[in-house]
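Field notebook, page 143. I keep forgetting to write these up properly, so this time I am using the form the group agreed on. The chain and the ligand, CA2, are recorded exactly as supplied. Prediction of the bound pose follows.
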Amino acid sequence: MRVYVLNGPNLGRLGTRQPEVYGTTTYADLVELCQQTGRELGLEVVIRQTDAEHELLGWLHEAADLGACVVLNPAAWSHYSIAVRDACALLRAPLVEVHLSNIHAREAFRHHSVVSAVATGVICGLGVDGYRLALHHLAARAR
Ligand code: CA2
């Protein structure tokens, strides 16, 4: 089973600042964590990051066309992108929204995600472990 792990703007810079909020794991470490978890679970993990909204929309369309599951950290787009939400609504397989930080314990503008209402489930505040847990959930659902 193929699972897309898609990451929005600035997440490629993970591990370079704000370790108190986002931890010390780098984006390269996150890629390795997801690929290792995929190998353990027998999943084909395709992990990508972009700072360009249209590119994320294209990847979501690709997942929708293939009927693939998605783990998505929409980053700042979570809070205002109706285009990302609409693309998520096209998905035919489960979507797990992941946030490294607990968005509800931060600034008010981060409390609402426009994506959450079209997600199967949401994990936030557990750091990079949220990605690992999301992949475990999707693997267990498929069995
Ligand atoms: O907690 C999350 O995962 C967020 O989706 C991360 C976004 C933020 O806008 C959301 O409100 C919550 C920010 C991603 C920035 O990522 C970096 C992390 C560390 C260093 C540089 C960038």
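OBSERVATIONS:
- Residues 10-11, 13-14, 16-18, 22, 73, 75-76, 78, 99-101, 103, 110 surround CA2 (CB under 6 Å).
- Residues 27-41 form the longest helix (15 residues).
FOLLOW-UP: compare against the apo run.
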